[in-house]
Design goal:
By secondary structure, the protein is an all-alpha fold. The protein has one domain (about 65-230). It contains nine helices and no strands. The chain has helices at about 1-5, 10-35, 40-55, 80-90, 95-130, 135-145, 155-180, 185-200, 210-230. Helix 2 runs antiparallel to helix 5 and helix 6 (about 135-145) packs antiparallel against helix 7. It is globular and about 50 Å long.
Length: about 240
């Protein structure tokens, strides 16, 4: 398994993504048959898949690096700050206790599942293949973004294109941070907060205004430059 992943990191990544979703799908099917909530079953399935992959591929995960890299995660938290700004400025009210509680599992599942697969395992295999930090970060981010093309089902092309572009930059930043400090928990937390903010509001804004779009584009440009700088910076 390790040898195949190190020789063919992209192909191996596709395989484990499919396997991960299959595990989650099986759990979802059993839960649905048992009359449980589908979203909850899907989340449990993703968390279980992440745990299995983490155990099987445990040596891929880096140990913490020097403390001077702790602060490099802060710009990654701007994605969560953007979601707060966008929802609040659009007048979307916060949900009640159920929204907050449900949001925890809905945000935790993809955060753990995707970071274990795309940052933990994939970056390890790319580095073992001989890629430097910059190329490994870009390849992992590109594949991460490409996976979001599956959202084309039920969505218009423009929405999916925005999601793919956003996912590309998010993948770049999370990848660069993990490569520098070796703390998967930090990128999981940043990912979790980014998703959780959206889950605690009662609905999504109907449309984005000019100011929203401007701030969004500036944010993505800043984050992309930051990721390139961080991944390319020499120790």
């Amino acid at each position: 398994m390790y040898t195949f992943g190190e020789k063919h990191p992209v192909l191996f990544e596709i395989v484990i993504v499919v396997i991960g979703f299959l595990i989650a799908g099986v759990i979802t099917a059993f839960g649905s048959f048992a009359g449980l909530q589908i979203d909850l079953c899907t989340c449990i399935g993703r968390l279980l898949a992440a745990f299995i992959l983490y155990v099987l591929y445990h040596r891929a995960f880096q140990g913490p690096k020097p403390k001077n890299h702790l602060l490099c995660v802060l710009p990654a938290l701007l994605f969560a700050a953007w979601n707060i700004y966008y929802n609040v400025s659009s007048g979307i009210p916060l949900g009640g206790l159920n929204f907050f509680a449900e949001g925890l599992i809905l945000a935790a599942a993809p955060a753990v599942f995707e970071e274990v697969i795309f940052r933990g395992i994939f970056l390890y295999n790319l580095k073992r293949k001989g890629h430097g930090d910059l190329s490994a970060m870009l390849i992992s981010a590109a594949v991460f973004a490409a996976v979001h093309l599956t959202n084309i089902v039920g969505n218009d092309y423009l929405t999916v294109l925005i999601q793919v572009g956003y996912s590309l930059v998010v993948g770049m930043v999370f990848g660069a941070v993990y490569l520098k400090n070796g703390r998967l928990s930090q990128v999981i937390l940043a990912h979790f907060l980014t998703d959780y903010i959206n889950h605690i509001f009662t609905s999504s804004p109907a449309s984005a205004g000019t100011l929203h779009l401007t701030v969004f584009v500036v944010l993505l440009a800043f984050e992309a430059v930051y990721a390139l700088w961080l991944a390319g910076r020499k120790e």
